Amino acid sequence: MNKKKEIVITVEGGLIQWIGGIPEDVRIIVHDYDVESVDASDLSVDKDGHQHVVSVWEKEDSEQ
User: Fold this and answer.
1) How many other CB atoms are there within 10 angstroms of residue 52's CB atom?
2) The model's pTM
3) Structural domain includes residue 35
């Protein structure tokens, strides 16, 4: 099985509502650094020690 390709998107001052047209072999990883109202259990820490929320997007089954 092939490893999925990854695209990392950093979000500051905005919110991703939807990402369409993701190729089947791509996984998009979003690092959102707007964490002031996020529960501590939902936070990750990057290599520089900054807290962020990670969300993963992949092709949806409904996309043709």
Assistant:
1) 20
2) 0.75
3) yes
Q: pLDDT tens-digit profile of 12-32?
A: 778 888 888 888 888 999 999
Cβ contact 9:30 at 8 Å = yes
17 lies in which domain range? 5-22+30-58
Half-sphere exposure of 35 (CA within 13 A, CB side): 17
Distance (Å, rounded) from C-alpha 42 to C-alpha 7? 21
3-state SS track over the chain: CCCCEEEEEEECCCCCCCCCCCCCCEEEEEEECCCCCCCHHHCEECCCCCEEEEEEEECCCCCC
Instruction: Tell me, yes or no, whether 9 lies in a domain.
Output: yes
